[in-house]
Design the sequence.
């Protein structure tokens, strides 16, 4: 597979683009923050065209994904001190591979159930969203993370 | 961490033990099959004591988990030809790290929603369960998988 070509063809699914904002980029994955204020909820989207399953990633990409997922989880735990992380690749409605990373709390809106379909999304104020995104960027700061607002790195 | 000691202390959570049967062992993970007949539903449980989060695994274990998860997913796709794999580490009710691997179909009981809490579990006949477990063992056959009925390899 020509991965350079593949990356160039990557486009974010419109529903994912509509319900999230970009936090930044790892080498493999785009880091998104959900606009649903019920939970600190990030998504990793590997920048590979036409990939719908984790096991479709190349072996090298799977290892890179494991690294990025672990790093994001650790950053979210450090930042939010949740009771549990929930990590899930579902994709029954949006086939483009995207992996949810959700910080869960015993007093959150859906606990102890999974978040999907549990309660309607609630909106952040613009100030609260920007604050959370900014704190995430600080928590993720390292030599393999680049903060960005766009799905394309300029 | 003394991983040999850690493996020796591993015990399967009673709720997981009650709702699944053992299919076999990878080097890191126990492979379980859910007794819920609604879906072809396997679980991977890393044989490490007191681990509740994927990112708690050592770097070496994370890479081994990625390998075993990918291998199990490919085997389930080959065997069941699902419309989508759902892979999730939730653990809000059973903290012991366990990662669901569920073969999903557009005509299954919960589609397109996640399976957790969607519909009551249904029972396999003993014959159907044994047949599915046997086919899984055949699909998983390789030099790093050992079929077994027990959580301890004799």
Sequence:
């Amino acid at each position: 597979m020509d991965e350079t070509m593949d990356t160039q063809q990557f486009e974010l699914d419109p529903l994912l683009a509509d319900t999230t904002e970009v936090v930044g980029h790892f080498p493999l994955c785009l880091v998104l923050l959900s606009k649903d204020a019920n939970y600190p909820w990030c998504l990793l989207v590997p920048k590979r065209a036409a990939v719908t399953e984790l096991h479709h990633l190349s072996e090298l990409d799977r290892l890179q994904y494991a690294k990025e997922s672990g790093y994001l989880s650790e950053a979210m735990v450090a930042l939010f001190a949740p009771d549990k992380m929930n990590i899930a690749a579902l994709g029954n409605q949006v086939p483009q591979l995207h992996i949810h990373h959700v910080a869960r709390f015993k007093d959150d809106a859906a606990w102890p159930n999974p978040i999907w379909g549990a309660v309607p999304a609630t909106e952040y104020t613009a100030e609260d969203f920007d604050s959370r995104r900014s704190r995430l960027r600080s928590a993720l700061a390292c030599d393999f993370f680049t903060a960005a607002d766009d799905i394309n790195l300029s």
